Amino acid sequence: MTKRSMTRVFRAVAVVGMSAALLAGPAAAQDARTQIGNAMKTMGSENLNSITFWGVAQNGNFGQNNNANHPWPMANASDYTRSIDFTAPASRATWVNYAVPVTGGAAAQTPGQQNITPQQGTWAQQLEIWTTPWGVLRAAAANNATARSQTVGGRRMTVFSFDAPIKSPGGLPYKVNAFINPQGLVERVETWVENPIFGDMLVESEYTNYRDAYGVMYPANIVVKRGGWPTFQAQLLGITANPADIQARVTPPPPPGRAGGAAPGAAPGGAAPGGARGGGAAPAAAPPAPTAMSEKLADGVWRIGQNPGAGAYNALAVEFADHIVLFEPGPANEARGLAIIAETKRVIPNKPIRYGVISHHHADHTGGIAAPAGEGIVIVTPAVNKTYLERALSNPRTLAPDSFSKSKRKAVVEGFTGDKRVFSDATRTFEIHVVKGLPHADGNVIGYLPKEKILVYADMFNLPNPVGSVPNPPVVGTGVFLDNIERLKLDVDRIMSVHSLNPDRMTTVAEIRASLGRK
Ligand SMILES: [Zn+2]
Fold it and tell me: Is 21 or 144 the better-scoring residue by pLDDT?
């Protein structure tokens, strides 16, 4: 979905919601209740307190597309089963992934799961229950939904609108719209949830090709989109209504030593903000609060690091005569971005941070982009990423106001064309080069200080194997990184990784070569 149409949908819904509320009197409320009851009858869900559904599914890796203008990458989720207890409410989904590990090598099966307990009150989790075709009608009835008619694509739809009984971090209710098609079936559900990159992010679920299971209707096809692209899709093969053992089905197993958690430093990308229905990593325990730790690499050149265990993202601050350029100004989350900015101002006082060069558009490298955008820092990135970032940063941010929305600024994204962007004045030169031939992401850049012989990069060499055996096959991204250093004839002494290496250190071309088994 384009930026414009996404914004238009949001505005249209906001306006309609307001007028519906103004018109809704007792008669209208009675009418809405009747219509919701009718929809439940058609769906066969009046007596549905729990459900299990199963099929083949795919989870999208939100925020981690290989090109900023392409859909999220989808991973197979075979043997997908989800059970929902609407009365608790609770839900548990399980599936099996089959994919090549990020470190390369043969594809492997890994089990996946998502557990939502009654205690998990965030809308990002609860919406997995209340935006299902059966859950949304139950929630509409419980939350005084209004009803209206709307023609969509030439078809007359009934739209139930209500506020979920959960407040956003900014104190606003979460809005839900359920579209009932002329056959009386739930065809589309919309809601919005806060996201650090996309602001008030539309979550749209489409339910089509309904089938009948002993009177309970279920969609054979489900597509859920976040940020305009699918984060979950499924072909349902069947359902069980009110399974007798629902309690067991929604109870998470005891944690067997944190199964499924990524090994530290293993996966560049990690858990993406926003998540996917049943996908992505489960939200981990809150990391320790980030505190910046800086290290002077050369005169006017600082590594803005982080306390161990807090996520470990590094930025590079480069001082010019009358301003500062930051490489990776908003990784991880807003707190991290704010800490980077504060520490940069401390070590290089009295100069504005004018430019922030992001290594690439992935969610873990832009999750804190609200901080530089709110500071009025120009976001510099290859042109391929410009539309994506402008679209994200032009959404309303009302559900969870952040430093960007509070600043009332308009984001400035400089999308440079060509293979490089050079920052230069009488004091120094900082070259930004676009990495060529990298499968991980188009528009990934490295920063190079020719005088100081310092290079900064993200995601191409993350492996904790300084002297270990060479992976077989060697990691593709690392090979591409070395090829680009050689192609550009960069004379490099020290290399800084945005993700802290394990053990934490600056690396060298020799170490990267060795990791590839090259002499
Ligand atoms: Zn990445």
Answer: 144
